[in-house]
Here is the input.
Amino acid sequence: MLVSVVIVNYNYAAFVGDAVQSALAQTHADVEVIAVDDGSTDGSAAVLEPHRADGVRVIFQENRGHGAAFNTGYGAARGEFVIFLDADDMLMPGAAAAAVAAAADEQVIHAHWPVAEIDAEGRPTGEVTPLASLADGDLLAQLLEAGPLQWASSPTSGNAWRRRYLDAVMPIPEAGFRMGADAYLIGLAPLYGRLRAAEGPQTYYRRHGMNHSGRSFDEVIRFDLDIARKLFSHAAQRARALGYEVDRAQWEARNWSFMLARSVKEIDSVVGRAVPFVLIDGMELSLEPSSGRMVIPFLEHDGEYWGQPEDDAQAASELDRLRGEGARFLVLAWPSFWWVDAYPGFVVEHVRRRYACVLENERLQIFDLSGDAGPD
Here is the structure.
């Protein structure tokens, strides 16, 4: 079964050669490699041209963005499965074979796997993305109720797509997805078939400061919100065309990007950016001091997240310590609302009875630690 690896490149001359070599090194017996250069100006052409001799189909186009490169590559692809590989990433040798095996069921139109992170020089960092288990099975009901992208998924290079699905949803709207074309494909997939999670990482995902992971926290929020709005529009239109009823307002109320943006705005309004505050979120919000806010993870040790407390007493003792060291607020975010049941002696008895709750909604509970503490 033919697998097409479509490498999409824009000004990644330093990395695209590695991407091509990784595609050529696949153990699957039937693989074609296509490289689309989206108007690079950094010498990428000199890296790509010699690979024509290796059987790579190299296509140059004027710069039109991520979605346009996907469209061009898919237009040239012949495979039953297609892997879009960002030029700064690399496939592990068994990626194509793993994709075909994962999608053995004809109902599976999207196979995905975790990605192992590497640095700019290709050294493993030891991190794997995402941390949560990848979605598997029929997610149609979940999409219709909660909206697109409300499940764990991998970035571009951790996905493979069956041709009949791509035929149904492509071309990707180029104006709306100059970046984030993978979100378009991931977000619509449950409308057309099942998802399957392959075993273990099959891709090296490179973090190097120039990709999405190198943006500031606030830039990421703005980017993700923009993509979500565009994707919601396309998903709602396609769902209704297929005969499904959807509620976009409900999608926005439940969507992670919207909830995060609202939460950060509320924290900035109540707490401010120059006031130290304790954040209980299990590190889910990625709101760190590098965001420009004086956030203290909980539990904390030498400024680093130190995991969950052993019991109520430890949580109370640690909060008192941080309060004594200058923490002015405690923020309990929705990914950790389960703390109310897991640590009732801390949340209910120690926090709620001692400190004023200055904001409470479905996303946040914020407590002012600046007043005099009452009896425990």
User: Anything to note?
Assistant: The longest strand covers residues 31-38. The mean pLDDT is 94. The radius of gyration is 23 Å. DSSP finds 13 helices and 18 strands in the chain.
